[in-house]
Amino acid sequence: MTTTVTTTAPAGREPVSRSPWRDVPAYRQIINSRLRTTLAYRQNVFFLLAILILQIFILRKVWTALYQGHTTVDGLTLHALLVYITLANLQNWVLQDPTISFYMYNRVREGQVAFDLVRPVGFVPQMFAHLVGSSFATVIFGSVALPFIFFAGTLGAPASPTALLLYVASFVLGYVITTLLTLMLGMFAFWTTEISGLTMLYRLINQFFAGALVPVSLFPGAIRIIADVLPFQATTYTPVAIYVGRVRGANAIGALGVQAVWVVLLIFASWAMWQRALHRVVVQGG
Fold first, then answer.
1. Where are the extended beta strands (E) located within 25-90?
2. Which of 4, 104, 204, 241 would staple 247 via disulfide (CB 3.0–4.6 Å)?
3. Where are the domains of the chain?
4. pTM of whole model > 0.85?
5. Can you say whether residue 19 is alpha, beta or left, with left for phi > 0 and alpha for psi between -120 and 50 degrees?
6. DSSP code at position 23
7. Are 89 and 56 in contact (CB under 8 A)?
């Protein structure tokens, strides 16, 4: 029989690290450990890459068929759209990493989080380091798969040198937003005994509202309003739209500002969520 025991973390908080800089070696070790773990299970990564390549190929065929007889749609040429679709799906694949959410869930479910909480490096920074290590591994695999992605989709140069610089800045902000959302998703493990269904729902909603399947600018009225009040388009659509020149000039600067606002809001939201999670440690045993 399975039992659930809820305990309260001592003093409701983690030990305060003496100095962030003194924790750098620990972060480096966690990043290397996660990188090695991901490389060790590379068969799963290659399988996910195959799905990504197939999805890009199908989307290219669908959008090419939809563009028959049209030079542009809403001011977007077919070539620009195909570059957008290819880069958006590749970027969305690089940023989204559900394994960290499941890792957090398993740490909580098995009670190992109790040991994480008493370590000098805080639990949330530990998870962030895991995400960085996983991202490095994903970039490595993605780079190897670029020739196949080029064949399945369309890769092209940025709209301008300025667009490339703004894209890099937007990508970094998008990465931070995705990281905060992933950490918050994993924190639900402190309240639930299973997060697989929630994770699948999150990935579905994120992929659509991030603009990986259809550019957000082409969403109909009501759905566009919903997309505008959610943070997902700031992770994928904004940087890729800047890259292909769909968003430029003052609009691009404004889009970066919106991303920065989401970063601040999600930092406060994740901090508040973590403060409540600290008072719940759920351990299952037989």
1. 72-73, 76-77
2. 241
3. 10-285
4. no
5. beta
6. G
7. yes
